[in-house]
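for the writeup, i need someone to sanity check this before i put it in the appendix. the sequnce is what the collaborator sent (i think, or maybe the updated version? ugh). structure was predicted straight from it, no edits. if anything looks off just tell me and ill rerun, i have time this weekend
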Amino acid sequence: MEKTVRIGVFGCRRGKTYIKALRLGKIRGARVTALCDRDPERMEKCAEYCYRGRLAPARYTDAEEFFSSGKFDAVILCNYFHQHAEYAVRALRSGIHVLSETMAAATLSDAAFLCEAAEQSRAVYMMAENYPYTRGNFELRRLYREGTLGKLLFAEGEYIHPMNPKDNAEISVKDENGYYHWRKYLPVTYYSSHSLAPLIFMTGEMPKRVVAMSAADDPAHAAEYGRLKPDAVGVMLVTTDKGAVMRINGSSYMGIRGNWYRLGCVRGGAETVRGDQAQVRVGYNSWTIPEGTEQVRTYEAVWPDGAEGAENCGHGGGDWWVMKKFIDAVRGKDDPFPDVYTAAAMSAVGILGYRSILNGNIPYDIPDFRDPAAREALKDDRQSPFPPDKTF
């Protein structure tokens, strides 16, 4: 009988979602045994949600005590956006498996040290990127890999997430160090994984170069919103290792909320239907229609086998898939996606996309994070829009 994977959750606001995936999604072989959060009341509510008083997890408000407790084999990092790499490196060096919320790293230095730590550890690293794992995106992956669409030429990925200014202000107040919440400092390119990761998942192609442009917020709206950064929308063009071009955006907060993905290939294309993550539209050139196939059709995608628990969980079922994939990877039954190299590359797209904007929209090459020499050259690159605080 396989040993139960003991899980520690670092940050209970977002962490509760993964606990829900374990419970409602009926993912076997894992149990939450430790929680850590600065807010004791939030942590207590999360602990109650875990097991309703049975097998209650240990609780910590101090990160040092949490990580040195020995209470867990794997940790889910749900701390602040720009502080994941620091704790991931610490966990990996201690042999603790890591599931890290997005993004993986806030600086190129962080990304380099993260990849090095993962290589030197027996523990598994996976980034908790959930948007590849919707029904529609699974189907686009299947369609592309069956080969009838032909070579990828271009792809598009969108993540649009408007937020009420009042709601944003409530979670973006200053902390005890006098710094605003990370959302106040976040450049729009940085949160690139929701638009980029599904395209990598579908095609297997990796980013090699990025160039970016941004549009500023309306001054009156920016004043109401209280943003410390003026950019409202960021668009990036990414070339891949196989010569395709991908258009993606970061955490754009203007427009109709939703996600949308498209693959444009030599023989045809496929896309999700806007507003419905389960609907897919596929079509072929009039001269390249496979025998017995309609030229264009729209239909509802179905889950791959064994996804019965996904419908009960958030982000179109993606939260369930993330937990399942991670537990299977820890047990050696599956490869993690995104793995550490993919996670580092996606972080670099956001970081260097922002530099492209700051420096007249010039292109930047994405480092090869598998290359130790390339990583070594990045270890002093700590340029960051975020303050150097140590909160979690």
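The two ends are 36 Å apart (CA to CA). The chain has a mean pLDDT of 91.
thx in advance!!
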